[in-house]
Specification:
Number of helices: 8
Strand content: 15-25%
Shape: rod-shaped
CATH topology of the largest domain: Beta Polymerase, domain 2
Radius of gyration: 35 Å
Helix content: 55-70%
Strand order of the largest sheet: 2-1-3-7-6-5-4
CATH architecture of the largest domain: 2-Layer Sandwich
CATH superfamily of the largest domain: CorA soluble domain-like
Structural class: alpha+beta
Distance between the termini: 71 Å
Length: about 325
């Protein structure tokens, strides 16, 4: 689907087209052409109409700097990551393509993002704030970074809560739940960091371009500062998660040592009565104790005493 935002005097109108056969632009200044789940025909139509080199799916996913940002004499092309939530605990980076050509912003995306819906509403409600595609791109990055900051704050709160559970050894949370939460939070932070790195690289390149006016560069500079602070925050979060993992591993080792200690003490405590029972289980002919009237109860009492004495000794030593 193709959404076209066209400025007419002081207003912005939106027109939607399902296929290229019905495309007809009324008079006005085109600000933004948003291609959502575009067909081959739609991409081909834009490429031919505006003489643009639109990257293929393979080119969109390449991670080299030259594949993420390039510009020529008339256009700027940016491939950058935008986070999308696939479930309550999963975030994935999806590539969005931005092309700036003679003040028009082209966006090519194969996923729905709330950021784009929000920007579209802002364009229609406040057209004076958007003079060209560069203003739109700046605002999209600004809103996206705000969303990333909210996600990062949420991940930070969950990380702090998880650390409390591990440090204070909350008995209501088992090890499997802690490991699952730890893995999820690490994945979220890594995806957030990758997304922020990618956008920082694109904005840094934009700031060096002579096609971008000073007002837009000022806004992008502020966004870049926000990105840098968020990158530092993700680094702190990752360090905290590593610390939690080390604490959790140490706790498991301590618990395992306690279990091994209990079994060791139990084994040591049962050795004397086992020895006594083994001796009196022998079938030698000359064993005077076998003919004692109280031989059996005495042997039982000796075995009980020999079991209790090591336990008392280990407790005094602090091993239990």
């Amino acid at each position: 689907m193709m959404n076209v935002f066209m400025k007419k005097k002081s207003l912005v109108a939106r027109e939607s087209f399902q296929n290229t056969q019905h495309i007809h632009f009324e008079e006005g200044i085109i600000l933004w052409i948003d291609l959502l789940h575009p067909t081959i025909e739609e991409v081909s139509y834009i490429a031919k109409t505006y003489m643009l080199d639109i990257p293929t799916k393979e080119e969109r996913e390449e991670i080299e700097q030259s594949a993420r940002y390039w510009e020529d004499s008339t256009s700027i092309t940016i491939n950058t990551y935008f986070l999308i939530r696939s479930s309550e605990f999963e975030l994935h980076n999806k590539t969005v393509t931005f092309i700036l050509y003679k003040g028009i912003l082209f966006t090519i995306r194969y996923n729905e993002f709330k950021v784009f819906d929000e920007i579209q509403e802002r364009v229609l409600a406040s057209p004076k704030n958007f003079e060209d595609g560069f203003d739109l791109l700046s605002k999209i990055f600004e809103v996206r970074i705000e969303k990333d900051a909210d996600m990062l704050e949420g991940a930070g709160r969950e990380t702090s809560e998880l650390r409390k559970n591990v440090v204070f050894n909350d008995k209501n949370i088992n090890h499997d739940i802690i490991l699952t939460k730890l893995s999820i939070l690490q994945e979220i932070n890594m995806n957030l960091r990758d997304s922020l790195f990618d956008k920082r690289r694109a904005i840094t390149a934009l700031l060096k371009s002579d096609k971008v006016d000073m007002d837009v560069k000022k806004n992008l500079t502020i966004v870049l500062k926000d990105i840098n602070s968020l990158v530092e925050f993700t680094t702190v979060n990752m360090n905290v998660l590593d610390n939690i993992q080390n604490l959790f591993t140490s706790q498991i080792n301590v618990e395992q040592n306690k279990i091994i200690k209990v079994f060791t003490v139990a084994t040591m405590a049962m050795m004397p009565p086992t020895l006594i029972g083994t001796i009196y289980g022998m079938n030698f002919e000359h064993m005077p104790e076998l003919h004692w009237e109280f031989g059996y109860p005495i042997a039982i009492i000796v075995m009980i005493i020999s079991t209790i004495l090591p336990v008392i000794y280990f407790k005094k030593k602090g091993w239990l």
